[in-house]
């Protein structure tokens, strides 16, 4: 059976290494022996600090160019040797940004087909966050934050100056790495690994997602919707209980909405995790009730009976006057989830959302009938834990506090 090289392609901070790891894990889960050969790891080990300087990447710097080419050749030799023995799919993880580099790869690796997999990320929020995260890596330990950012941006600029998208290569897949979507492809016909890789690229991977609702607010007690109320004493104790319950679990990313109740619920947990990344996404703000924002359900029933009737007839599709429906919510929640999963990569994450938001988030995993979505049970003293990878399928609702209003 013919083996396969997979060569990643893309500018820095586009999600190549995360996708390379997923391809490896997904293939391993299918019993296919896959291994990653990473040029960056070899560069850091062989060259060290000098290769953090942006000038190392200047295409005019022939010494830097020469070293990078040597690293590429060495990794190709390692990959070739590995495929010659037990390996089945060798993944070359590097930028491979220029056409010249890719010609070198195709001309050197002639024993098996080479499939190029390009990662594209054009979401400015994600790109920005990825770039900032890169500057916190050990490689930049001796830099100030501003200098690290400046240096990394210069490095990206040099790569941009030589970058050309895939086109003339024999086999390739171009992927929107923020959306698990194939943008274009030139299939590697006949390779048994190609359909498996394609499937891995388009599937949603969730290593460990905790989905909690904010704790109780005064609005919840009154039956009032929307607004931006703080937590009650019970709500704060629920937030403390959540933090206690999660104490021994790894959570690297905490996403909230921009609402106070979501922030206050995440706060105790974040205090215990100074290294965790916290980010507020407006995509996770509660359903916007438009003209009904801040009203009691009972007031709406009395003074706006059409709204109640509309929701009773079709709670999923009915939009509040000048507000949102669950159906409208879906698109922004999906965008928020995509962003959160992309940023967290393989790391465990927590989303502290709201009743309607969490219903829609869950429905994205559960493939629920849309009319059932607005009735999914979202208590304030339990969270959902979701893990969906080729090795693990977990979907559980876990109580973390016995008291409290559901
Ligand atoms: O009642 C709390 C709340 O989060 C409101 O802010 C929101 O409008 C509502 O839940 C969503 O749930 P439902 O669609 O069942 O009214």
Automatic annotation (TrEMBL):
Keywords: ATP-binding, Kinase, Nucleotide-binding, Transferase
Domain of life: Bacteria
GO CC annotations on file: cytosol
Pfam families (UniProt xref): 6PF2K, His_Phos_1
SMART domains assigned to the protein according to its UniProt record, in alphabetical order: PGAM (SM00855)
Taxonomic lineage from the root: Bacteria, Pseudomonadati, Thermodesulfobacteriota, Desulfovibrionia, Desulfovibrionales
Organism encoding this protein: Desulfovibrio fairfieldensis
6-phosphofructo-2-kinase domain residues: 2-169
Record protein name field: 6-phosphofructokinase
Gene Ontology biological-process annotations: fructose 2,6-bisphosphate metabolic process; fructose metabolic process
Family matches, as Gene3D superfamilies: P-loop containing nucleotide triphosphate hydrolases, Phosphoglycerate mutase-like
InterPro entries recorded: 6Pfruct_kin, 6Phosfructo_kin, His_Pase_superF_clade-1, His_PPase_superfam, P-loop_NTPase, PG/BPGM_mutase_AS
GO terms assigned for molecular function: 6-phosphofructo-2-kinase activity; ATP binding; fructose-2,6-bisphosphate 2-phosphatase activity
